[in-house]
Amino acid sequence: DDARRTARALRAERSEIAGAPDDVPEDGSGDGAGGGTGDASDSGKDVRKASLPDLREAYRAASQVYEKVGVGADLRAEQARAESDESAARADLDRLSNKVRTRAAQLLESPDGSDGPSRQAAAARAEELVQLLETRMSSASEQLGRLRGEAERHAPEDGDTHTDLPEELQPRDTEHAQSLLRTATAELASRAEALTRAREAHAELLDAHRAAEDAAGGFDEIAAMLRDLLREHAAEEEQDEPDPYAGDLEEARRGAAEARRSLRGCSADLSAAEAAVREASDVLVRHANSTRYEQVRTPARQQIRELPASALPEHAAKWADAFAPRLRVLTDELAQLERNRDSIVDRLRGLVESALATLRSAQRLSRLPEGLGEWSGQEFLRIRFEEPDQATLTERLGEVVDEATRAAVKKNSDLRRDGMSLLLRGVAAALQPKGVAVEILKPDAVLRAERVPVGQMGDVFSGGQLLTAAIALYCTMAALRSNDRGRDRHRHAGTLFLDNPIGRANATYLLELQRAVSDALGVQLLYTTGLFDTTALAEFPLVIRLRNDADLRAGLKYISVEEHLRPGLPQPAPAAEGEGEAVHSEITATRMFKRPAQSPA
Q1: Which of 72, 117, 299, 482 has the most CB atoms within 10 Å of its CB?
Q2: Would you say 423 and 355 are in contact if contact means Cβ atoms under 8 Å apart?
């Protein structure tokens, strides 16, 4: 069975081989030689048996040789393209006329058409000739268009010709026209040159004519000036005949030269005087037209504005006489105003100096007591400024007064002119340009001597620190007010009621600082609060608890004292031995006085 299956496979493989014989012996004696692919000698000797792999390899080699000698697909495709090109060329040839084909046949019979390279060279020369002819044709077309444009531009608007020519100048042909044109061009050039020479001569004559006219005009001016100088104050008929000069020519010339020099000097003086008069007239007119005197309605100002400048010198004397009394009155009034201004400036300077002294007193009175750490002996306020000298201060205050005066005269001015505003502007002007710098100590838990500008308090201080600083400033201002009123030795400088300050400043160090500053400056602080903060309330020597009571029948409300808390009140000191004085440390009795009602009138 295996042998039969092998035989069937081999037969199937043999059937696929082209040219293999169909009759193969069954016994296999001719195996491998039936296909004609085995090796055999030329003399018909015994055929050598070959194995199946050898025969297969020989078959593959024979197939490769067969494929190499066979016609490939690329050759067939090239053949097809050649046949297509041949058919297209034949169609193009059929479309040509007989004349073109006859001329092509003649060219092919010529030496240029003997072979391929000759034909390519001849075709290249023909292409170059065609391009040359096309270039010449385009140049000729362009020149023809330009000539046609020139002919249309030079063509006469009316009629066929620009002018009528005699018969001998009418061209017969192109050569005759060119010769006539050359003759006309030469004649035109000669005429143009003659025209140029004539124009130059005409320009020279015009220059000479203008120079002569200028000289004549100058001579006329000199003659007129001499006539005016010689006959200025008398009519021509009233002039006496001049006497002949008795001296010789040289003396006459010297006298004439001296007279001319004197005349020139007098003319110069007269010109200077006239210029001074004109300048004074211009100044007077500008002065009268100034906006400062718009409210002045005097007739003289109206005349000055309306009269011509040449007529002003005639009225100058009358105006001077009329203005002299008014000038004296105005001078006196201005002097009085200046004295009043000086007195106002002096008074304002005194107030400004007092205000600056108040600033220095505020810094001095803000000195803190001992027992506050680094704050001991420090000034709570530090006010720095540069005091100007007397001359500078007077000048600046004068400017402030002048500004207030101008604002009073000016309409719709919002500048305030009360005493306090004027004093504040005077202080600001006195401290220019640097102004005043105010620094305040910053309250903190350790009481460091750190100063902060007042303009930065809102950014740097907390709520409790702001309240503490405000209380310290109030105490300083109260002490300053007491000092200004002459009660600097009086211990009590005032009382300050505070509306629930513990809600913002309940820190122990802040309360201690507030009480220390108030004790140092003699201000009594009264704290009101509804909070029962034992830590904060323990700092006060006396706490009075109040209660709201209501009388419903009478419709009245009362505030009653519920209890007194004295965690820090000192005990009454016993009387000193040997001294009969009583220590007054508490209130023992009170008296109330009620003013009687006034009887109706």
Answers
A1: 482
A2: yes
